[in-house]
Amino acid sequence: MLGGVAMLALAALAAPLASAQDAQNAAAQPATGAAGLDIPADVIVFGRNDPTLRKPTAIVNGDIITRTDIEQRLALIVAANGAANVPPEELERLRAQVLRNLIDEMLQIQEAAGNEIKVAQSEIQQSYERVASNFKRNPRQMTEYLASIGSSEASIKRQIEGELAWSRLLRRRVEPFVNVGQEEVQSIMARLEAAKGAQEVRVGEIFLSATPETAQDVALNARRIIEQIRQGGSFAAYARQFSEASTAAVGGDLGWLRPEQLPDALADAAREMQIGTLAGPIQIPGGFSILYMTDKRQVLTADPRDAVLSLRQLAIRFPAGLSESQAAARTAEFAAATRAIQGCGAAQEVAQKLQAEVVDNDQIKVRDLPLQLQDLMINLQIGQATPPFGSRTDGVRVLVLCGRDEAESAQAPSFDRIMAQLEEQRVNLRARRYLRDLRRDAIIDYR
């Protein structure tokens, strides 16, 4: 995520996708009507297309996308997902997707330049520094890291330039023509108040556009993405590279919303999903979506996971060469001693006896803890400790609850926030149409 580079927006949906039955009917007769195409039922193809031939580079309206550009951007995806050994067929699929992304990026930069929109190098550098800080590196260290994985500083900066240029172009060419009435906002606020206590979810989305002709291939691509994420890939990284919604810039995050605010198929899936799970590919108008459930809460009610905890952590580490039986014995001793803790003062004494490390933190929200610990902490009494957790490599630790500030009832989103969200939805829809028109008018020479 590039902080401040792109606005958070809900993914808007493109034109409706024909059903499978519609597609079958269309195949049986000449295509007429809205599509405006005149395709005979008895098609004879002159010549042969070799599906194994993939053209790795492109010239977009005279600007060149090189193989190096593609490989450096591909290296970012592979590294972001910790995939050291990606199968060759998966690499080829990712490479083709990266080329499509770079073409869109080039079209966006070209269109911005055509509208006399330029992004200063100083702004790009500031965003690059924020990216580096997200990786807990300074810019020099980030540049060295990128080179070590086969990418480059220039590749990230090009992506930053594309996002900034496109965002400014939309502000100039699209946003002034998007209007939201006060009545619409007030209606939503009234519905939120009426829905107090209902479920609200925070989900991430990867949206892949499709036509009836490409639906099968796009669905297959979505399933492959899901497989990679389930094998440990980063949802945010895949959303950033593959999603065609504007929320790609923020890792696909749609923010907090009620399931009813989503298209019906996505709403049905969101109601059934558990935190930390994936759903998809889900067919919706315009393409397919992959959902990731980040969190859940109740509308305008206090959520115990918003409670702020004061915690004391006790941790022991195992020296190199310790046998399994010795580690097990040390863990059992640690568990027995911490189970008897009564209060944080006693925790300090136990830590001294066990030669355990002690770390305090007074500002931890329950929801910021790993899922496995959240229910434990909600039900823990002040002064009690969790069961030991950890590993032989990282050590074993417990958390002692020293205090809890209970969560307050959530506030309804403000009038301005709801209006901004509605505007973003409509800007996103127009932006997708804008990019679609740029693709249609572009002269692209694949090499």
TrEMBL record:
This protein's record includes keyword Transmembrane: no
Signal peptide bounds: 1-20
Family matches, as PROSITE patterns: PPIC_PPIASE_2
Stored InterPro entries: OMP_Chaperone_SurA, PPIase_dom_sf, PPIase_PpiC, SurA_N, Trigger_fact/SurA_dom_sf
Molecular-function GO terms, alphabetical: peptidyl-prolyl cis-trans isomerase activity
This protein's UniProt keywords: Chaperone, Isomerase, Periplasm, Rotamase, Signal
Record's protein name: Parvulin-like PPIase
Taxonomic source organism: Sphingomonas changnyeongensis
Origin organism lineage: Bacteria, Pseudomonadati, Pseudomonadota, Alphaproteobacteria, Sphingomonadales
